[in-house]
Design brief:
Layout: H1 11-16, E1 20-24, H2 32-41, E2 46-50, H3 56-66, E3 71-75, H4 80-89, E4 94-96, H5 101-110, E5 114-118, H6 121-129, E6 134-137, H7 145-152, E7 160-163, H8 172-176, E8 184-186, H9 192-197, H10 200-211
Parallel strand pairs: 1-2, 1-8, 2-3, 4-5, 5-6, 6-7
This protein binds 3-phosphoglyceric acid.
């Protein structure tokens, strides 16, 4: 898929671009651009930079400015203020660990595609009430894994998921084989020691392997 600079994306565009959305934690803004370039070189463009560190917003800004082939998104969006800050920094999508109507409504107002986190039927229903049918299943392994998603497929046939949390190369295929799973999320593409050591080649290799995972 060709991505126009600044083009508005949907949640489904974000999920469909590759089989894995990397969950990224960055402590140092100097790492943001080389890391993003390394992931793009391996075929992964949708990058979830978590708002867990003081450097996160500056990292999103740097990627949005300097790596046009990447799409910087914000993870760990927990409030309306987080969503606004992420959009102001140039994030083009948001991921949240749970769903609140405040986060859902703010992202809608901002035109920021959101993958809200859910782990129960009630949470799926709350997210659907807010207009969201593309959801993150979090924490996937701990909340019931692939059998839980199979169970969700009955009552929530119109919902698609990105399981995240405890997903790894060992179990990613099992998730991706499910009809209601579009992609998975995980931190394994960006090991902290590789970021610290500037081992961008390893990250490109991990991205390449993740990009080669297939649905079905
Ligand atoms: C997170 O929010 O930290 C993600 O769920 C990543 O989980 P993982 O480290 O198990 O991939």
């Amino acid at each position: 898929m060709a991505l126009k600079q600044g083009a508005l994306l949907t949640s489904l565009d974000v999920m469909r671009d590759a089989p894995v959305i990397p969950v990224i934690v960055l402590d140092d803004v100097a790492h943001a651009v080389p890391l993003a370039r390394a992931l793009v070189a391996g075929g992964i463009r949708m990058l979830e930079v978590t708002l867990r560190t003081p450097a996160a917003l500056a990292c999103i800004e740097a990627i949005a400015r300097d790596v046009p082939a990447a799409v910087a998104g914000a993870g760990t969006v927990r409030s309306a203020a987080d969503a606004r800050a992420a959009a102001a920094a140039g994030a083009r999508f948001a991921v949240s660990p749970g769903y609140t109507s405040a986060v859902g409504e703010t992202c809608s107002e901002l035109g920021l595609p959101l993958l809200p986190g859910v782990a129960t039927g009630s949470e799926v229903m709350a997210a659907m009430e807010g207009g969201y049918t593309e959801l993150k299943f979090f924490p996937a392994q701990q909340a019931g894994g692939a059998p839980m998603l199979k169970a969700f497929a009955g009552p929530f046939q119109d919902v698609r998921f990105c399981p995240t949390g405890g997903v790894s190369p060992a179990n990613a295929r099992e998730y991706l084989a499910l009809p209601n799973v579009v992609c998975v999320g995980g931190s394994w593409l960006t090991p902290p020691e590789s970021i610290r050591d500037g081992d961008w080649a390893r990250i490109t290799q991990l991205a390449r392997e993740a990009a080669a995972l297939r649905k079905g």
